[in-house]
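The protein record minuted underneath.
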Amino acid sequence: MSENIPLRIIAHIHSDFPAKFGIPRQSGLIHELKATVVFEPDYRSPDAFRGLEGYSHIWLIWQFSETARQGWAPTVRPPRLGGNTRMGVFASRSPFRPSPIGLSSVRLERIELQSPVGPVLHVAGADLMDNTPIYDIKPYLPYVDSHPDASGGFALQSHSGILQVEIPAGLLERIPPDRRDALLAVLAQDPRPAYQNAPDRIYGMEYAGLEIRFTVSGHTLTVCEVIIK
């Protein structure tokens, strides 16, 4: 007889993305993106982090909190395939899953043990929305977790390449210097779904307290407005 064991939320991540649009499609794509993992009071014992400093990367196991109550479907329409081709949910990383659990590999930059909110993990390369609940953290082990000869299925076949990003100097000055490289890298990955390709359409994404508005024509993304929120 099986027993349901509840998953406990041990932490929340704090990132520069208050909404889903614009978040990298996978972890590790944008190394310049910084985030922090802040733990719930019951899990702030420094003993729980003993030895973690010896690892360069960690796995974050987290909750698709924005879609957890919307159920699941056996097939999904991956945006990278144009939004029309159906694939099995288990062949995708869609958030609409039987159990709304996500998995991300991030770089562990440092551990701050003595912050006002207890131990804090400073990480890079996360693909999580701000305040996403974290279920667990595990060390990344390169000798078993890395498979250089693995096949990537349709996810690699549909990769559309990097965009050239153009931002007028006056708009670039409105972006904090310590956020510019990460934003440029995010935009270069093309935040749009693959089925949206209208050159006259203005897209908008929220990032680090800003609203970034842009257009895409061919392989060039042009930022046309930066609004401080």
Notes: The CA atoms of residues 101 and 185 lie 26 Å apart. Residues 160-228 form a domain with the YaeB-like fold fold (CATH 3.30.2310.20). The first strand starts at residue 11 and ends at 14. The chain has a mean pLDDT of 91.
